[in-house]
Each structure stands twice: as C-alpha cells, then as structure tokens.
Amino acid sequence: MATDFSGNWELERSDNFEDYLKALNIDFATRKIACHLHQTKVFIQDGDTITIKTLSTFRNYELTFTVGMETDEHTKGLDNRVVKSLVTWEGDRLVCTQKGEKANRGWKHWIDDGKLYLELTCEDKVCIQVFKRKE
Q1: Phi then psi dihedrals of residue 18, to 5 deg
Q2: Do the beta carbons of residue 85 and residue 97 sit within 8 Å?
Q3: 135 vs 131: CA distance, rounded Å
Q4: Do 35 and 19 form a contact (C-beta atoms < 8 A)?
Q5: Model confidence pTM above 0.85
Q6: What is the pLDDT of residues 94-122, one digit of tens each?
Q7: Which of 31, 49, 64, 106 lies at a CB distance of 3.0 to 4.6 Å from 21, suitable for a disulfide?
Q8: Can you give 80-134 as a three-state secondary structure string?
C-alpha cells in the first residue's frame, strides 16, 4: 500500500534552499524572501490522485497529479517555466522527474520517524526540507 501523506505539515528546517533557487535562476530579492518564509504543505490524497498545496505569506502553489501519468506543469509562482512532470512511487517515496530547460530537476517526498521530507534537485544542487505534522 502507498504511503499516506495526507494532512498539514509545517516547515521545520531547510538546508541549501538558496543554492537550489540560484540553480533555477530565481532573482536575488525573491530568493531572500523565499528563504525566510514559513511554509505549510497540505497533502490531499485520494488513491493515486494527489494535491500538494504549498502555502506561505508570500506565494502559494498548488499541484494536482495522478501518479504514473506525465503532465505539463506550469511552475507559476516559482520559476515560471513549463516542465513535463512524471510522479511515480519508488517504494514508499513519491518521486517526481521534471523535464524542461533545467537538467536533473525534480523532487522526492517521504515520511521518516513522523517527519515529512522533501528533497529538491536542480542541476547539481540539492535542497532538503523537513516538515512536522501540524496538529
């Protein structure tokens, strides 16, 4: 059975986020703001159809996908690119590969010891974010 990510998650720690944003060519001012935001992730999961909402006081982003189906994703509010995204299960991890202008781009979500982990990759940069469940 697939991992159930459902619920609200608050950002606890973010490592190497600014370098990841630089790899995406995010401008200086936006990077500085983004690195100081308090983020909440909201997962709504119905089988293999998943919605992930990333909420903050600066920008919100919502992504709905079906695991195993490639989609065109417009990263509006992030780096404003169109990428081909494919999310698959690798064991208990959700793994997204994004094809577009940037090489080696994607993300992975998993839960370990009650914490939600997000690994963001772009080119040779890797950011790890850790979230705790919001009660």
Answers
A1: -65, -40
A2: yes
A3: 12
A4: no
A5: yes
A6: 999 999 989 999 999 999 999 999 999 99
A7: 31
A8: CCEEEEEEEEECCEEEEEEECCCCCEEEEEEEECCEEEEEEEECCEEEEEEEEEC
